[in-house]
Amino acid sequence: MSERCAFVYSSRFDDVSYGDDHPFKVARYRLAYELIRELELLAPPGVTVVESPLADEAELLRFHRADYLEKLREFSLDPDPRADFRYGLGDIENPVFPGLYAWARTVCGGTLEATRRLATGEVRSAFNMAGGWHHAHAAKASGFSYLNDAVVAIQWLVQQGLRVAYVDIDAHHGDGVQEAFYDSSQVLTISLHETGDDFFPHTGYSRELGHGPGYGYAVNIPFLRHADDRLFRRAFDAVVMPLLKSYRPDVLVSQFGVDSLRTDPLTRLEMTTAVIEDTARTLRSLGLPWLALGGGGYDKVNVACSWALVWGVMSGRAVPDTLPPHFRARIAALGAERKKLRDDEHFARPDDFSRAQEALESNLAFLSAHLSPIHRLALR
Ligand SMILES: [Zn+2]
Fold it and tell me: Helix crossing, 27-38 with 325-333: angle to 10°?
């Protein structure tokens, strides 16, 4: 069944470059958009394609510090490369290049526009695949992220008096979002990710539970490397869904980073497109106003396929498993051979699985012990 939903897009999403050697490629946005369009998932009824506007600086100041925004603006107007490591700007991960600030504001503006349309009831769900920059801090770029669109949007919702649940399935911990709401029970943040033991951003342990009135409202489920779909589903069923049902937020915000997929070159989790599609379906079943954002993902063909699946679920449309011929030709030109949209089923090696399972069960037991009393639940 289709319902009113907004797909945010701008042809400006892919008009910058982080550099030839940088793993993040903006080309994935156009690729995903073209796949989604060719699958006829943007056709009426119910679907609105929304142009992503430039976010106002006043809106960014809801979270970001003025001196940081000033640096970002100044540096991205300069044709020569600039750096100031106090602000995380200009290093290998977070390069500064002409047009960066306008680009980041366009991405953030898309998330805000989607949020406003949700809050007015104009749409029931909205997807900004170019959003989800969960590592950005108030005055520091980090992990390819400059403006934390999720935080800016959630702050706006909180100012409207709304309670928000944020669910982040990116392979990296959603540290910037957690940090922004660590002291608050008005925002429940849940992040599932690869363990920070030897992996950026080195946070996201189950013991990080929030602070003061926010204690019990920051939830982290780290996975050992090689965790596969089975463990993801186990964690989602055991902790994420019971918490969301008990918390009953006014708005759901989800970050759909897809670098947890086994084909991703930067991470070591072994999940498949099935968990992305399942997660979207499960979240949709909650029937809440729902903002979905993109996030990491460095195998751009699989990113496009995954976000097409997410959008298929959000817009209530069936997504066939065969890739359209135009898209196949386009990815063939990029050197990728692929016929099917969904990954084949995949299971981690038994010894890897056992290790990851044992670690997960220990984290789930810890979370159950600490969260069950606060949320009056019996998590298992
Ligand atoms: Zn990531």
Answer: 160
CA of 258 relative to ligand 1 center, distance in Å: 7
Q: How far, in Å, is the centroid of ligand 1 from the Cα of 172?
A: 4
Query: For 81-134, how does the pLDDT look when each residue is reduced to its tens digit (9 = 90+)?
Result: 899 999 999 999 999 999 999 999 999 999 999 999 999 999 999 999 999 999
CA of 139 to the centre of ligand 1 (A): 20
Q: Residues 6 or more apart from 192 whose CB is under 8 A from it? A: 168, 169, 221, 223, 232, 235, 236, 240
Q: Which one of 135, 172, 173, 226 is the catalytic residue?
A: 135
* Residue 202 a catalytic site member: no
Domain 5-375 architecture: 3-Layer(aba) Sandwich (3.40)
pLDDT digits (tens, 9 = 90+) for 237-258: 999 999 999 999 999 999 999 9
d(CA 46, CA 252): 20
